[in-house]
Amino acid sequence: MGKLLIVGTVAFDAIETPFGKTDKILGGAATFIGLAASQFDVDSAIVSVVGEDFPKEYLDLFTSRNIDISSLEIVEGGKTFYWKGKYHNDLNSRDTLVTDLNVLANFDPVVPKGYKNPDVVMLGNLHPNIQLSVIDQLEKRPKLIILDTMNFWMDHTLDELLTVIKEIDVITINDEEARQLTGEYSLVKAAQKIFEMGPKYVVIKKGEHGALLFHEDEVFFAPALPLKEVFDPTGAGDTFAGGFSGYLTDTNDISFENMKNAVIHGSNLASFCVERFGTERMVGLKRKDIMKRLHQFKALTQFDIELQ
Ligand code: AMP
Fold first, then answer.
1. How confident is the model at residue 301 (pLDDT cuts 50, 70, 90)?
2. Is the CB of 154 under 6 A from ligand 1?
């Protein structure tokens, strides 16, 4: 079985959407990545940190999904990373109201012994120095290093972010962040500029408008499944990253052709994530529902056209 090493926040989220609001619920980039990746045949471990206020039932959720949390540090007396966000009416954009780094501010990550040689590394959203430290602890270069980030780190730690971007193979980023990182409005030009920063593959997520995968002169597009109801987009990007990295680890094939399938799997899982608040939908998700929706995905873009 392939090994997937996951880094990212494990968090409390408070979310407000046009449909309602939550108090502190389970969130965080690594949480969504781990839950999505656990739908595949992979061994995975999360490197992250929480405070003493983090409930045991959430820890049990990870272990029940066979996710190794031996390197999920619990800081005595510390407070868990906290994020509060409010979505606009179109649900495609949001304002961050609070980002309390708390225990994340002084976190020194330790890669578990059994994961110093993983097949794939998924560097989820958190401080770029932590992402870099995880790469530095690996015994040899993994088959693939994927990185996800967000505007917060571009605003506060751009130099550190550019340093880690040099070291990775694939970046997954949303359209606004790609524009912020490169200063280019055209996503094609933005992807080309990101190639110059280091990554060979660039995935640009466009929310309900799907995702683009760029590699050299090639580009692949996957739509997002049109859904009757979108309830809370939080974690969709991370769920995409978990599906993408989980599928590539499971299939042990990092060709561009297989990455196209990984984009579809990531998009498919993200379509479930947005149907309920937080992790609610991902927790009870069944294999048969995932397969059913994959068929819908295929039908959505399949057509027969005769070309000369
Ligand atoms: P997404 O909707 O995929 O962009 O991810 C939302 C998740 O990212 C939430 O569960 C938050 O806890 C987490 N998050 C928000 N801000 C940050 C940040 N600056 N660094 C890392 N994770 C964050």
1. confident
2. no
